[in-house]
Amino acid sequence: MTVSIPDPSRTTGDAVRPTRRALVAGSVGNFIEWYEFGVYGYFATVIAANFFTPEGGNDLEGLVKTYASFALAFFFRPIGAAVFGRLGDRIGRRPVLILVVLLMTAATTLIGLLPTYDTVGAAAPWLLTFLRVLQGLSAGGEFGGAVSIMTEFAPDGRRGLYGAWQSFTVALGLLGGAGVAALLATVLSEQALNDWGWRLPFLLTLPMGLGALWLRLRLEETPAFRGAGDTRGADKQVGGAVAPLPMPPAAEVARAIVLGAGRIMGWAAAGYTFLVVLPSYLQSTLGASFRQALIATVVANLGFAVSIIPAGWLSDRIGRRPVMLSGAALVAVSAIPLLNLLQDADRSNLVKGVAVFAAGAAVGLMAGPGPAMLAEMFPTRVRYTGLGLAYALSNAVFSGCAGLIITKTIERTGEVDIPAYYTTVTCAISLLALLTLRGDDHRGPLRDGRGDGRGDERGVGR
After folding, report:
1. Residue 241's beta-bridge partner residues?
2. Which of 29, 74, 104, 326 is the most core-located residue (most Cβ within 10 A)?
3. What is the rounded average pLDDT of the residues 414-431?
């Protein structure tokens, strides 16, 4: 059985709407998720003061604890990816994506209502950490489902472009968080921002989440999943009995998950270092003001956003491998010069702005093709789980820990170039993993696990 996927370039009316709806419904959850994670990163110093720094406490130690809570949420992402991914591979992408957006919206809104350390004492950081754990679980289930619906609705030859929308809405979410933070920093006094203004960005998640819920309730199930469900047990006859579609061997799936995590670790580490951790680094290490740090981060995120969609489109033309290799190599060779430039007081703000814009654009070269690359590594029956776990594991280790590793290492060593070393090493390792990519995986259809000659001979994860 061949599953027909509507191609928006050749169809009109009702045939086009499911693909557009899939892009919008998949994107909106990612926007909310990364908006919140960006806000938490941008307000890290304020959150540290309100939740992790009792009166007379050390500010840098409070920041370290804030990033520890940040990292903990990321370590719950793989659990969420496994639990929600398995559900999404069994009952469908649509119902699970509805569930995760509800969980994310509730947890994020409640952060905006939490009492601080001054009000409830040591209970405050524990309450915050609990809500961060819920966010980590929901975020773990978000990526695999969103990328699955985007790439499974995409026509052959356009998965890179469709999948790039996931990364693009990450950039929009981070930019939205930075924009809200910058606006509040401009219109509110520092005292008001620290007292209550920091709550507003979290509370804004409630109306956004309700909008996302409405969109996902109108979402259809993907053609690939419907096809697998319709033919599961119907495409092979053994002795007159119907044989189910085979599950890929667990060892192959595990290998593909580890390989996928390695291929995107540079994207994960550099993305969080340049796009989220940068404000706190500029403030705590280089003495920049909150406004200056946010402006630098907005510029870096603009570079990231500008390059993602072209990178996804280009990867459909020349392959995922050369585009992602270029991004990893550019970050690896430029990270140390970039940080040295930011540390140079004699350099103009314009030069520094161009540099951080270029750094963000280099990360976008990895982020654009990344979702499609991961989707192409797994057959339909394990795609939600497999790509979700690969992404969640890489982000847990190399994104969630970025702020903690960088801040703690600088505190212990006094070495201000730690962010550059971190991104250089992780991107160098990613380069090695990306060399294992086949050059033609972007050309054929997604794996469906049928073994009927339509590309499954490539094997899981190749």
Report:
1. 238
2. 29
3. 91
pLDDT interval class at 15 (50, 70, 90): very low
pLDDT in tens, 352-409: 888 889 999 999 999 999 999 999 999 988 999 999 999 999 988 887 777 778 877 8
For the chain, the straight-line distance linking the first and the last C-alpha, in angstroms and rounded, comes to 24
Q: Which amino acid is at 148?
A: S
Q: With 0.85 as the threshold, say if the pTM is over it.
A: no
- Structure-token match 């809104």, residue found: 109
Judge residue 462's burial from the number of C-beta atoms within 10 Å of its C-beta, 0-12 exposed, 13-18 middle, 19 or more buried. Answer: middle
Cα–Cα distances (Å) from 336 to 285, 308, 324, in that order, read 16, 23, 20
Q: What is the per-residue DSSP string for 384-405? A: HHHHHHHHHHHHHHHTTTHHHH
Q: Return the pLDDT at 241.
A: 42
- 336 touches 251 (CB < 8 A): no
Q: What pLDDT score does 2 carry?
A: 38
Q: State the Cα–Cα distance between residues 190 and 202, nearest whole angstrom.
A: 18
Lowest mean pLDDT among 178-187, 234-243, 270-279, 412-421: 234-243
Cα–Cα dist 170/261, whole Å: 18
Q: How far apart are CA 442 and CA 456, in angstroms?
A: 13
Joined together, the tokens standing for residue 286 give: 């280089």
Looking at every residue in the chain, the average pLDDT score rounds to 83
- Give the separation between CA 136 and CA 85, rounded to whole angstroms: 14
Euclidean distance between CA atoms 96 and 86, whole angstroms: 10
* Pairwise CA distance, residues 138 & 81, whole Å: 8
Q: Check: CB of residue 397 under 8 Å from CB of residue 267.
A: no
As given in the structure block, the two tokens for residue 295 are 């402006």
Q: Measure Cα distances from 79 to 159, 248, 430 in Å.
A: 27, 21, 23
What gap in Å lies between CA 462 and CA 460, rounded to an integer?
6
Handedness of CA 158, 162, 163, 167 (dihedral sign): positive
E strand residue ranges, 223-307: 237-238, 241-242
Q: Which residues contact 99 (CB under 8 A, 6 or more apart)?
A: 84, 141
Dihedral in degrees, nearest 10, Cα atoms 119, 403, 197, 133: -60
Q: Among 415, 396, 403, which residue's Cα sits nearest to residue 68?
A: 403
Q: Alpha carbon of 402 to those of 61, 64, 299, 389, 417: distances in Å? A: 16, 11, 20, 19, 14
Tokens coding 80: 């969420």
φ/ψ (deg, to 5) at 242: -80, 130
